[in-house]
Structures are given as C-alpha cells and as structure tokens.
C-alpha cells in the first residue's frame, strides 16, 4: 500500500519514514508524489489541522495520506505557542527566531514545564479516517543545547535523559517523541481494524 505524507518538511519525513517504513510498501512526500498543494492550516487545534491536511491530500492523490500537526505547548504561556509554533516569531519555519522569542517570553519565569504535542491523521480515499495524538514532556532550558532535531528541540530538557531533545541521538528521539507516540497509537488503531 502506498502512503503519501502530507508534508515537505524534511525533518518530519525522516522521522515518519523511520517509524513507519516497514508498514507501507512505498512512502512518499508531497514533492515525491508530484503534488504541489499547500493546505491552509486554519483549524483551532492540532487535530483539526492534521485531519484537514490528510483529507485534502487523500482526495487529490487517490491514495492514503498521513498528516500531522505538531508544536510546543508551554504551561506558563497558557499553551502557547501551540498551533502557531512554526510561525511563533511571525516567519514560518524560522526555528532560531522562534526559539529566541520563546526564551524572551520565558525570561524570569519559574514554571518551565512544556510539552510537544502531535496530532496524526490518516485519511483514505474512501473518506475513512484514523487519528491519534501523542505528547512528549519536559522543561524549557535557558538557552539552546544540542545539534540534533529541529524546531524547539534545543530548548526542551528531558529530566529522565539529562539532556535536551536536540542532544538525543535521532534514533533515540524517534523511540520516545510525541510523533512516535502518535504514530504508535495510530498503528495500534490500524491493527485493530484488520
């Protein structure tokens, strides 16, 4: 079975392919599938955005489509940046600017609890849908640490591991991340359908 990942984000694609690679015959990005489409993410939750993206790509492609929406939720900021994580600083995908702004907003704040959330949706051409969510909890650091990962990974400290998400080897992060947890929950739901 062919799966199209409703994204061209290279970092997400690597993680998703590493986790789902043995479950599908072929996994393609939008670009690899020859699809030039940008979904307007206007949902009010991660799940709404993921479902919208997956349904649009399944309809366009006639194949199963997997979409996720994910971001960082900071307790002291009322869950922000949340669904605006990728464009928190005003420029979509500028990780350094997003991290700088978050550190500025957290200056002097004692409550450093935060978590990554990932909502995953798999839409089929027949209109059926399977969804799942996962979270990855930690504490915000005072500065960026680590070279692996992307986004806010250099800022999320994982007490159980004694390092940030960006200091974990990629294969280790892929076994414990919010995306992994969402994908695992999704796979469990798919297996129950058989």
Model description:
- It contains 5 helices and 7 strands, in the order βαβαβαββββαα.
- It is α/β, with parallel strands linked by helices and 194 residues long.
- It has a single domain, classed as Maf protein.
- Strand 6 and strand 7 form a beta hairpin.
- 38% of the residues are buried.
- The mean pLDDT is 92.
List the helices and strands and how they pair.
Layout: E1 2-5, H1 10-20, E2 26-29, H2 46-61, E3 64-74, H3 95-105, E4 113-123, E5 129-140, E6 156-158, E7 163-164, H4 170-176, H5 178-193
Parallel strand pairs: 1-2, 1-3
Antiparallel strand pairs: 3-4, 4-5, 5-6, 6-7
The oligomeric state of the chains shown is single chain
Overall number of strands: 7
State mean pLDDT (0 to 100 scale). Answer: 92
| Poorly predicted residue ranges | none
Helix content: 25-40%
Key attributes of the depicted protein:
single chain; 194 residues; alpha/beta; Maf protein; 7-stranded mixed beta sheet
Summed up, what is this model?
Helices cover 31% and strands 24% of the residues.
